[in-house]
């Protein structure tokens, strides 16, 4: 079981170190770990945010555990050299089109949600975010107009094929949950969303056991804080999914708690190849202080065990250890406590 670990920038290495400890502590047979450079650190060491050897390492692995990329000192570099291109490049090059971002309230965190406890308690949703298309990967540029103004553009598009594969995955996920899909778009304004909506409706015909509803993204943002318990599976495009998942994270406590899996079609000896990462970024405001909450990274290890290694029992064991730590009052600074990154790692490992 070959796992490539890409810690990246800022708090990426801090949270990934704790996630790695958890993975090693499970004593999996035949586990081999490699580390590679991505992001700003890779740019400084190798002149590129996603060096060829890192990409090769990812391709040769059964799964990738990713920390975070992003470094304010790189914000003036040409876009192709910025740290964020590492994660965008991996998602595109590895064909990871489906990003699963579960948001469920852990017992005891009701009081820490930004929502009222009785509303927060009901949250158990899975955001299925399309990851290879949309405005992220369309034609883009900046030009100077005749009047001297600069103009930037980013083309948004989705094809039926791109929508079909993510919709099918969302419907299958709903079959294993509460049987409900909410498709989020902006079909009242965008042609991209019209194709999205028409295609989701077509796909729904093959899943008569799943109920489908549609919601405009502005309403979805509102419903997410009004009545989040009504959502089961949310399927949406790359940009809307990015925004709604950060919002969902504070509804269950903190962005330091939300894990993700990015999956494609490639099957390995053990499961589906995937990349696993917390949904948060490199958090330059707290990097180096030892304050980052590693639970999102640790929960990403659980998703890796489940989807890429076929180790459901180990995945549940990791999730239970995190849940127990939270129930016992282990709290990072992001959720009103004082436990540091290593301390939280220790607390989870103790409970494994
Ligand atoms: P961010 O997620 O890094 O941080 C947002 C806020 O949440 C900050 O106040 C931060 O301190 C806090 N936070 C995030 N993770 C935390 C954790 N584990 N524990 C405690 N607090 C945590 O988002 P940002 O500030 O908008 O972006 C910073 C950089 O990260 C940018 O360069 C951005 O492009 C990049 N980014 C990368 C990824 C990724 O690698 N997948 C994801 C998001 C943002
Ligand atoms: C995320 C991040 C990335 C995204 C950035 C860093 C490219 O915000 O993983 O959620 O927008 O997908
Ligand atoms: Mn994001």
UniProtKB/TrEMBL annotation:
Its EC number is 1.1.1.85. Signal peptide: none annotated. Keywords: Amino-acid biosynthesis, Branched-chain amino acid biosynthesis, Cytoplasm, Leucine biosynthesis, Magnesium, Manganese, Metal-binding, NAD, Oxidoreductase. It catalyses: (2R,3S)-3-isopropylmalate + NAD(+) = 4-methyl-2-oxopentanoate + CO2 + NADH. SUPFAM superfamilies: Isocitrate/Isopropylmalate dehydrogenase-like. Substrate binds at residues 91, 101, 129, 218. Residues 2-348 form the Isopropylmalate dehydrogenase-like domain. Pfam families: Iso_dh. GO terms for molecular function: 3-isopropylmalate dehydrogenase activity; magnesium ion binding; NAD binding. The keyword Protein biosynthesis does not apply. It is found in: Cytoplasm. Its cofactor is Mg(2+); Mn(2+). Mg(2+) binds at residues 218, 242, 246. It is an enzyme of class 1 (oxidoreductase). The keyword NAD applies. One of its GO terms (cellular component) is cytosol. SMART domains: Iso_dh. NAD(+) binds at residues 281-293. Pathway: Amino-acid biosynthesis; L-leucine biosynthesis; L-leucine from 3-methyl-2-oxobutanoate: step 3/4. Homodimer. Catalyzes the oxidation of 3-carboxy-2-hydroxy-4-methylpentanoate (3-isopropylmalate) to 3-carboxy-4-methyl-2-oxopentanoate. The product decarboxylates to 4-methyl-2 oxopentanoate. NCBIfam families: leuB (TIGR00169). Belongs to the isocitrate and isopropylmalate dehydrogenases family. LeuB type 1 subfamily. This is 3-isopropylmalate dehydrogenase. It comes from Qipengyuania oceanensis. The lineage of its organism: Bacteria, Pseudomonadati, Pseudomonadota, Alphaproteobacteria, Sphingomonadales. The gene is leuB.
